[in-house]
Design brief:
About 50% of the residues lie in helices and about 20% in strands. The chain is of the alpha/beta class. It is globular, with a radius of gyration of 28 Å. It comes from Nocardioides koreensis.
Length: about 775
């Protein structure tokens, strides 16, 4: 997206953006405050506005009245929408856990996810009819369906009937969760436009079917946001290099597609108002292709703003359009006010409109205009988003601007050729394959940049997510935004800034005092999952579990300066313990991989075997009862017994009880690493090991309420570590588990509150440090 041309030096009219900000505030008021408090806020603002009427003057007073009206309108719509979703017959039945039959329209494509107990299909329905507890109701409310493989091919737009048990929703955007039993019954097929959209998407996937897996997945993601096949490790690399926007529907996608259509229309001698018709039809077609989800509508609105900004008087028109888009989107869906994707889109668009023109003009003093524009646009967008990205990920990408600049020449051709492959494939498959292959070639360059950029020593630097850290970063961002034109105007200062950025990327900054001297064990903050490291010697660690995704455990091992893993133990095959295995193996020497005896669930087993095979080692069961030394670590496997089952039901429901339980000793410190073992297993361990005492306890199963407390309390641990994700859906950890442990005098620490937890032994004294 290019910055506006004429009028770049003019001060933009910020009245419409102010109305947009008021709409955003109204959405937040509706979401965060109860109805009486929201009404009180609006009333208080009205009183202030009336009191200041004579001081403000007619024009400013009318502007203030408009701002207040927009804020109140969005807040009112938000409150009404929440009441409609949370107070209706479906939500009432869900509160009772009733079995019901629903009829509704499929509003999202089925999405396969892997949970703790295997694969599930997620689908959203707009329910029009529900029958349960002897009554039938007609209404219109959204419901999330959790189903089996029978729902995998249900088409978007179809009207279906399904039965199952309703449960309460954990979010304000759906009235209930339906645990469906069996496949749906299709009552009516999708409308013609949905069938056409589905045909283009299928043709697009077919046009790249012969390409390597990464290219095969990324081309649809670029064109229509279909990122279901993108490898998580590749997604992590895109995140580290600031290229994540290419994996989702964004305003850039729409700008490229509709911009190409407008160029094509000009070649065909379309002029005047008819170009607006072409643009409107292009936006409509894009929305249908990418689906009418809130994220797509958001992207379409931001892309439309970008198209207006590229015309004459672009900065003024763009800022006004941004304000109008914010008001319209939030009136339609006030819930967008709390959406991270919405915030990132708005910030990026605002950065391009407000910052990029000045930066481009400064760079134009010593660079060609096309190069100045290519640097200014991604730089402005990235800078505007930096504080929010840091708040979400805890990182600041140093390669984002460079990576976006390098891939920019390939993004447009990949998107347009990919779309052409989908359209032409409907007419003649070989032509579609040709266009798809050329799109895949472009994508191969983007993948290469993401891989190489993420592998740089300091591609992304860790940044705290606390209030002080984010305040400092926001102030730095504002300072750079204001000083940008002055710094870039001169060749000397511009090149110096570029040199500092390159140096920062190539040289990893030292982390003073980390890892701390005398560290024994670390519980990595990897979200809702486990990843533990035992200090086996200089730059060497025994790793127990790998967490739910590769990037987090990889970053933790980097912080601990672990480059060799003589032993990786995976306590069981649930996703929150094994899905991050690639992050452990990537770039490190691995001596052995050991697992539980129970080979269930199959998805986790397959992933571990595949990753271990690529690393040149075989995954074998941990030897029960054997005591051995691995570097500075002494280990003994306490559970599961040698005669325990090796075959499960296939859904992972018995995997926790088969967790590998380890007794370890490092520098004289005794540690019990209990995996997710259940109370029955804990009770059996108490019988097998009477009088067992340890210094450190890794609390089983993320501190859940299902524990044999007599066993845990009998261990006499001085430190109790809970590896758990913030705001998880399982209620972990439970106060009923933590309070008794704390009552014994043990220090209880949690990764969701304290970040990385590191046990340290110095001169016979045991302590714990946190990296939060």
């Amino acid at each position: 997206m290019a910055p506006p041309e004429p009028g770049a030096g003019e001060v933009p009219d910020l009245r419409m953006p102010a109305l947009g900000a008021a709409a955003w505030a109204g959405g937040l008021v509706a979401h965060w405050l109860p109805v009486p408090a929201a009404a009180a806020v609006v009333l208080a603002l009205l009183i202030v506005l009336l009191a200041a009427r004579h001081r403000l003057g007619p024009r400013r007073w009318l502007t203030g009245a408009g701002v207040l009206l927009v804020l109140a309108s969005v807040a009112w719509v938000g409150v009404v929408r929440q009441q409609q979703v949370t107070h209706n017959p479906v939500s009432a039945l869900a509160g009772d856990g009733a079995v019901a039959t629903v009829e509704g329209t499929v509003t999202t494509d089925p999405r396969v996810t892997t949970g703790p107990f295997g694969q599930q299909v997620l689908v959203r329905l707009e329910v029009r009819r529900v029958s349960g507890r002897g009554a039938t109701y007609r209404l219109a409310t959204p419901v999330l369906v959790l189903a089996d493989e029978g729902w995998r091919d249900v088409p978007l737009g179809a009207t279906v009937r399904a039965s199952g048990r309703l449960g309460p929703s954990r979010g304000p955007d759906v009235a209930a969760v339906l645990m469906a039993t069996g496949p749906p019954r299709t009552l009516h097929g999708p409308d013609v436009w949905w069938r056409a959209s589905g045909a283009v998407r299928a043709s697009l996937r077919e046009s790249v079917s012969g390409r390597p897996a990464e290219q095969r997945a990324l081309v649809p993601a670029l064109v229509d946001g279909d990122d279901g096949g993108v490898d998580p490790a590749l997604a992590d690399d895109f995140r580290a290099t600031g290229l994540t926007h290419l994996l989702a529907v964004s305003g850039t996608n729409l700008t490229l597609v509709v911009g190409f259509l407008l160029v094509l229309a000009r070649w065909l001698w379309v002029r005047g108002r008819w170009l607006y018709v072409v643009g409107a039809l292009g936006i409509l077609g894009f929305v249908l292709l990418a689906r009418t989800e809130p994220s797509v509508l958001r992207a379409a609105a931001m892309g439309g703003v970008g198209l207006l900004a590229m015309g004459s008087n672009g900065r003024q028109r763009g800022t006004r359009a941004l304000g109008v888009a914010l008001v319209a989107l939030l009136l339609v869906d006030p819930g967008l006010a709390t959406s991270v994707g919405f915030a990132l889109s708005v910030l990026a668009t605002g950065g391009i409109l407000l910052l990029a023109p000045g930066w481009r003009d400064a760079l134009c003093r010593w660079l060609p205009r096309w190069l100045a524009e290519a640097i200014a646009v991604p730089s402005a967008a990235q800078l505007a988003c930096t504080p929010l990205v840091a708040a979400i990920s805890g990182q600041v990408s140093l390669v984002a601007v460079g990576a976006n600049l390098v891939v920019a020449p390939a993004v447009g051709p990949a998107t347009v050729l990919g779309l052409a492959g989908g359209l032409l494939g409907l007419l003649w498959a070989p032509v579609g394959h040709l266009a798809g292959t050329m799109a895949a070639w472009c994508v191969a360059w983007i993948v290469l940049v993401a891989r190489r950029g993420a592998a740089l020593p300091a591609a992304a630097v860790d940044w705290g997510t606390g209030m002080l850290s984010l305040t400092v970063l926001t102030l730095l961002t504002l300072g750079l935004a204001l000083a940008g034109p002055a710094l870039l105007r001169r060749r000397s200062t511009g090149l110096a800034c570029s040199g500092l950025l390159v140096l920062g990327v190539l040289v990893r900054p030292p982390t003073p005092g980390w890892p701390p001297a005398g560290w024994v064990m670390a519980a990595c903050d990897v979200g809702q999952g486990d990843a533990l490291v035992l200090n086996a010697g200089p730059h060497s660690g025994v790793v127990v579990d790998a967490g739910p995704e590769p990037a987090a455990v990889d970053a933790c091992l980097d912080r601990l300066e672990v480059t060799a893993v003589p032993l990786l133990v995976l306590t069981h095959f649930h996703a929150d313990h094994v899905d991050g295995i690639e992050g452990v193996l990537d770039g490190r020497s691995v001596g052995a991989v050991e697992t539980t005896r129970l080979r269930d669930p199959p998805g986790g087993v397959g992933l571990v075997e595949e990753m271990a095979g690529e690393a040149g080692v075989a995954a074998v069961p941990a030897p029960y009862g054997v005591t051995r030394t691995v570097g500075d670590v002494t280990l003994q496997v306490l559970w599961p017994p040698a005669d325990s089952p090796t075959v499960g039901p296939g859904d992972g429901s018995t995997a926790n009880e088969a967790s590998v339980v380890l007794l370890a000793e490092v520098r004289g410190v005794r540690l019990l690493l209990a995996g997710d073992v259940e109370p029955e297993g804990q009770a059996r361990l108490a019988q097998l090991l009477p009088g067992l005492h340890v210094d450190v306890l890794k609390v089983p199963h993320h501190g859940s309420r299902y524990q044999d407390l007599d066993f845990l309390l009998s261990l006499g641990a001085r430190l109790a570590l809970v590896s758990v994700g913030a705001d998880n859906d399982y209620g972990h950890p439970a106060a009923s588990t933590l309070a008794p442990l704390a009552a014994t005098g043990a220090r209880v620490l949690r990764t969701d509150l304290d970040g990385d937890l590191v046990v340290v032994e110095r001169d016979g004294r045991l302590s714990a440090l946190t990296g939060g």
